[in-house]
Amino acid sequence: MMTRPDIVLHRIGRIGIYAALLAASAFYLLPVYVLVVTSLKPYAEANLTQMWSLPSAASLESFQRAYEQLRPHFRNSFYLAIPATLLSALLGSVNGYILSKWRFRGSEILFPLLLFGMFIPYQSILIPLVQVLQQVNTVAQAAGVPAAWQPLVPGYGSIAGLAFVHIVYGIPITTLIFRNYYATIPNELVEAAKIDGAGLFSIYRLVVLPLSMPAFAVVMIWQFTSIWNEFLFAVILTQNPAIRPVTVALYNLAGSYIVEWNVQMAGALLAAMPTLLVYIFLGRFFMRGLLAGALKG
Amino acid sequence: MRHISWDRIFSILVILPSALAIAVFVYGFIGWSGWVSLSNWDGLRPDLSWAGFGNYAKLFATPRFQIDIRNTVVFTVSFLTLCILIGLGLAILLDQRVRGENLFRALFLFPMAISFIVTGVTWRWLLAPGDPAAGRLTGINVLLDGLNLPLSRWYTDPTVLYIQPTSELGQFLGRVGLGFLATPTFGIPVAMFSIVIAATWQMSGYVMAMYLAGLRGIPDELREAARVDGADEWQVYRHIVFPLLRPITLSVVIILGHISLKIFDLVAAMSKKGPGFATDVPAYFMFETTFQGDHYAQGASIAIFLLISVSLLVIPYLVYSTRREAEL
Fold it and tell me: Of A120, A219, A222, B93, which has the maximum CB count within 10 A?
């Protein structure tokens, strides 16, 4: 039983908790307010001194202008992120299956060696990466790849090349998430299928894959978000402006002094939209991916 | 029996492409970068002739690189401290059976879904200082001025706080042979805190989520038992909860630490190298040196430095978690 002073203290405590949570919410929402307010302003009102005031009338002009400039890059980002996400999820799934259900001598050494790949600063592989991808182009040219097929050559300065890079450097995280997920599938299930005469591939297809959908959701959301948001590979590997993904386009848009703030803010909001929508509608899986990124969480 | 051994072969064949890809694209390329860093390659044409460790000697003697190391230390320490304090604080608050917990959690975590480029562009606009000396204020400074709080020049501030050699402490350090500590090389660049604020905005919700998962993993009976034994709330946290959260703190330090050591996107989008390199970091220096200046060997030496600093943090952790898993 709480005595009267205890109840008063308890109430004050509760008010304090909510006050602190609301203050924190204000901090996280502050940039959103400025983004939305600025991007709804016409050019005449979008200057730094009036940034906190509401627009006199909401105008979608900034969004239109930002969209005009970013539209081809949105398309590039989708061409990049969707195939790369699908392929790296598939790769992660079979890798995770082998490392969890078909361990072999050396697999417990192989796994941490794979994992290290997700922590490295990519600067330490960029110089050879650029050289190798340029070499791929030279080889493709020498082999006489027809012009129509060239966008599919995973070389330097192509979306296919950038997608290939994301798939390769996505192997560690996707393998990790699938392996940890498959560890929760009882080995008895696999053993029983073996006794029934099923082999490696049919066990994957008939037993493991049907149970994998939650892990696919987590991995695909994780990969889509990271590839969409990625900047370093994108800025180094896409010298040709036509194939730049949206992060690089936004970076250039914001870096030019002739582009007004309202257009920059509208562009930032547009560039964030796809991953924000994923977060809003599939947040549960996004959370799990985040915590899986923390290894054992 | 024969059936099983075929599957053995298949299993290795399935994992082989990935293993080879990592062997080449991670380990092979690291080796290659290491070689470039020891070469004479300076300019567009590759030149892999042996130069020895000269590039590293030159790098550590470069003032910009010394500043970068200082900036990285200041950034990493303040970013980690802020994220852990805010993340743990919010997790504890949300763990008090609050109404609207899901909404709050979603709000604190949404910046994680956004690109560092978007964050950088937005915070550059928010923290644009205007010209406080001329009375023309912009961004956050308008709010601060309205609340009568001190203004800042944010990421445009070239100020470096350091122990003045003429001060009493500075003179003392000089006398005991530690005079080098009273120089800007061991100072704190004020502009770096703008980057810290933006990075904390983006990542502290993630830390909150990790701590909240940790708090939810602590059985209620443990806390209840301590309360029955007469512990007050503070003692419950001090002696039961915080020790049990230690593994989470370790994960947070590793994950945020490796991100902050190699931070690049946010700095590039927000302030680039900053006034007097006040917001420069090794990753940005590497980018300029290699891909804008074509000094490949020098750039590779910065990259290898980055790799070594991240490895010192991550490898012990990987070894530790692999061992722990093997014991289970």
Answer: A219
ipTM of the complex: 0.93
Q: Does domain B63-327 have CATH number 1.10.3720.10?
A: yes
Q: Domain of A142?
A: 62-292
Region B146-175: mean pLDDT is 92
Report which of A164, A169, A178 is spatially closest to residue A89, judged by C-alpha positions: A178
CATH number of the CATH domain containing A245: 1.10.3720.10
Q: Which of A9, A30, A109, A120 to probe by mutation at the B interface, max B CB count within 10 Å?
A: A120
pLDDT digits (tens, 9 = 90+) for A71-98: 999 999 999 999 999 999 999 999 999 9
Question: Which tens digit of pLDDT belongs to each residue from A93-137?
Answer: 999 999 999 998 888 899 999 999 999 999 999 999 999 999 999
Kindly state whether residue A93 falls inside one of the protein's structural domains: yes
CB-based contact B86:B207 (threshold 8 Å): yes
Asked if A94 and A204 touch (Cβ cutoff 8 Å), the reply is: yes
3-state SS, residue B163: coil
Q: Quick one: average pLDDT of B283-308?
A: 97
The answer to whether B108 contacts A24, with C-beta atoms less than 8 Å apart, is yes
**Among candidates B58, B34, B62, B61, which has minimal Cα distance to B48?**
B34
Residue environment code for A4-37, b if the CB has 16+ CB neighbours within 10 A, otherwise e: eeeeeeeeeeeeebbeebeebbeebebbbebbbb
Q: Domain count of chain A?
A: 1
Which residue among A104, A168, A247 places its CB closest to the CB of B25? A168
Residue A87 within a domain: yes
A193 part of a folded domain: yes
d(CA A103, CA A108): 8
Residue B326 has pLDDT above 80, yes or no: no
Per-residue tokens: A289: 């991916």
